[in-house]
């Protein structure tokens, strides 16, 4: 059996935070291995890793028992990125970054790129620059004992921001490139699995509020999926695409099968989400070898949950990992980098090089002459001064002559009259006086503090008491407007419960209250 799992991890270091704190050695290697063991798959495909090569650490990249492959965003740090972890008994025979073939190194690549004539070179580079696709090609053995080729395309498709129409165009071009590459691999004789975050809820059953979304069926992303996938719900005359949605193949009418929820609205507890993550297989592969397709709702750590499938085939490991494997990166290969690798030799003109050498010699001679001149003109200490020896530190401290010194033989005259007028106090009287003075000072300080406190209380009214929501009579939560506009930065109160269907009484009510500025 071959078990594959896909998970939009929303930052490869995010799920490790809770796991690392539980580890006795606080080791990220053990934490990453524990996550992979929990997913219990032969091949794990991760999306939205949000790491670039310069911040990728060895504990995240090198896990015992696995070989890993990463694709990084080349434009932004902490953005996008995908990774594939394969167990050693499922080592791929080839691995490649990107869909266009421009990032291929011609050694250990998957190949079979198809016709890219409808794209320009600049467009292909832009589509592959965000680290959204990673291909691994494996050898599998069927139940009949036949060896076949299986190519996994791990993808994190772009999100179409309504406020940025150019991103919708980018998304649709990425879809087109993905379809061309997948169909080219099929034509070359390889089985193909497309798995990952496609960022589109295909059918109304895959979205919590599809009936209230205007033009749901007319969305260009859904139309693209209609052409890519076979429609299994219809009878004769239905569209037959090259791929099958494996989950709907086994669970065609399962409602609430969502894989993504909003973290801001806390929608996961009430399952108020959508299905954006898929395992798509070519028709022959799904019908002949797929045994199950599943969602892992119980796995936390991201705003997505893992999805996966089980195939009735056995992986045939390659003898060695492809060159794209992270263990071959110089920073993880155990080889020390020489400083010469960071320096580029400059080719100089022989005439310029000879003149530079002459200038260097002249500078060296002039420097020696200057040193000799300085050494000869330096003043030497006299023989008499050197014979005096080292001075004592006390010799630098002399008594000041400006202050008159009292003579030891001088006696001050006594004043008997003043002695008679001053009568010394007893110790009890002094103690009583000190206590009275202390109490008076404390009383004055207390009165002054109370006056200041009452003054500021009259000026500042203090924070507003947290209101209760109208639907549940429970304390509200305070939020801040972050969307650009006239209300940017304003704060408001709303119901603290998670978002859910309007018909569910346990979901958030419509209470809303602006916070007035002081």
Automatic annotation (TrEMBL):
Region Disordered: what ranges?
A: 363-412, 424-449
Give Gene Ontology CC terms: mitochondrion; nucleus
Family annotation (Pfam families): Exo_endo_phos, Zn_ribbon_GRF
Sorted UniProt keywords: Cytoplasm, DNA damage, DNA recombination, DNA repair, DNA-binding, Endonuclease, Exonuclease, Hydrolase, Magnesium, Manganese, Metal-binding, Mitochondrion, Nuclease, Nucleus, Zinc, Zinc-finger
Give the reaction(s) catalysed: Exonucleolytic cleavage in the 3'- to 5'-direction to yield nucleoside 5'-phosphates
Annotated GO biological processes are: DNA recombination; DNA repair
A molecular function GO annotation? zinc ion binding
Renumbered to this chain, the Polar residues biased-composition regions fall at 379-405
Q: Where is the active site?
A: 156, 197, 304
Q: What is this protein called?
A: DNA-(apurinic or apyrimidinic site) endonuclease
Annotated organism of origin: Daubentonia madagascariensis
């Amino acid at each position: 059996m071959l078990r594959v799992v896909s998970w939009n991890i929303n930052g490869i270091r995010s799920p490790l935070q809770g796991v690392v704190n539980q580890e006795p050695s606080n080791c990220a290697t053990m934490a990453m291995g524990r996550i992979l063991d929990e997913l219990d798959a032969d091949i794990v495909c991760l999306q939205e890793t949000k790491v670039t090569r310069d911040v990728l650490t060895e504990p995240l990249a090198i896990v015992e028992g696995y070989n890993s492959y990463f694709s990084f965003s080349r434009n932004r740090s902490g953005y996008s990125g995908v990774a594939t972890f394969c167990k050693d008994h499922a080592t791929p025979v080839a691995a490649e970054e990107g869909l266009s073939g421009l990032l291929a190194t011609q050694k250990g690549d998957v190949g079979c790129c198809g016709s890219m004539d409808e794209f320009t070179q600049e467009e292909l580079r832009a589509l592959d620059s965000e680290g959204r696709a990673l291909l691994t090609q494996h050898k599998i053995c069927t139940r009949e004992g036949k060896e076949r080729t299986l190519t996994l395309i791990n993808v994190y498709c772009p999100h179409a921001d309504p406020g940025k129409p150019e991103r919708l165009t980018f998304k649709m071009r990425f879809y087109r490139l993905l379809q061309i590459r997948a169909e080219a691999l099929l034509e070359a004789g390889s089985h193909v699995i497309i798995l990952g975050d496609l960022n589109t809820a295909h059918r109304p059953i895959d979205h919590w509020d599809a009936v209230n979304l205007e033009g749901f069926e007319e969305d260009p992303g859904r139309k693209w999926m209609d052409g890519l996938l076979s429609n299994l719900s219809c009878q004769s005359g239905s569209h037959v695409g090259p791929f099958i949605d494996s989950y709907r193949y086994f669970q065609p009418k399962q409602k609430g099968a969502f894989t993504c929820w909003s973290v801001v609205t806390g929608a996961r507890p009430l399952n108020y989400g959508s299905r954006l993550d898929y395992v798509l297989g070519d028709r022959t592969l799904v019908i002949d070898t797929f045994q199950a397709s599943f969602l892992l709702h119980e796995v936390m750590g991201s705003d997505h949950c893992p999805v996966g499938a089980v195939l009735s085939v056995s992986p045939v490991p390659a003898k060695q990992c492809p060159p794209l494997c992270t263990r071959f990166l110089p920073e993880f290969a155990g080889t020390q980098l020489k400083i010469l690798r960071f320096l580029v030799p400059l080719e100089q003109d022989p005439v310029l090089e000879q003149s530079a050498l002459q200038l260097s010699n002249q500078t060296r001679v002039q420097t020696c002459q200057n040193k000799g001149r300085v050494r000869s003109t330096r003043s030497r200490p006299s023989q008499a001064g050197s014979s005096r020896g080292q001075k004592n530190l006390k010799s630098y401290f002399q008594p000041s002559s400006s202050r008159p010194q009292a003579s030891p033989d001088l006696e001050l005259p006594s004043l008997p009259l003043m002695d008679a007028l001053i009568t010394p106090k007893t110790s009890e009287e002094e103690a009583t006086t000190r206590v009275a003075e202390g109490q008076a000072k404390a009383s004055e300080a207390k009165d002054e503090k109370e006056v200041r406190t009452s003054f500021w209380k009259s000026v500042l009214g203090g924070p507003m008491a947290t209101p209760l929501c109208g639907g549940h009579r429970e304390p509200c939560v305070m939020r801040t407007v972050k969307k650009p506009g006239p209300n940017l930065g304003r704060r408001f109160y709303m119901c603290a419960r998670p978002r859910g269907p309007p018909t569910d009484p346990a979901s958030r009510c419509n209470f809303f209250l602006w916070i007035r500025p002081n």
